[in-house]
Amino acid sequence: MTREIPTNRRQFQRAVDDLKARHRDNSDNPGSHQCQRCRRCYHCMFTTDSEDCFSCTYCRECVRCSGCTQCTECEDCHGCSYCVKSRHCSDSSYLIFSESCSGCVFCFGCVGLVDKEFHILNEPFSRDEYFRIVGELKKEFGIRDR
Fold this sequence. Notes:
alpha/beta
């Protein structure tokens, strides 16, 4: 059975808008396992309070993330793990309060870095210095390790 598709611009746009509204109102999590209080999370496992995520595991309060593991309060991150309160990051791990970083590890409050590690506010630190300062910052911001 073939459905009739509107070819008039206005009717077609109305049909698209209707589809968007139904999608926005849908809270199903297809292919997900033990997702709690999530909306439109696909193929996620053990994820909570997240929205529009794909293939994430053990994430909390994330939005529009994909392929992430153990991330908390992240937005638009892809292929990241153990990140906290970070946005628009990819292929990175252990980022906190960072944005638009790619291929980075152990960065705190960094923006726009690529392939960097042990940075705070885009400045490099030795491994020991980094963990000492970040320990203080985590206390100040009330960030606990999982």
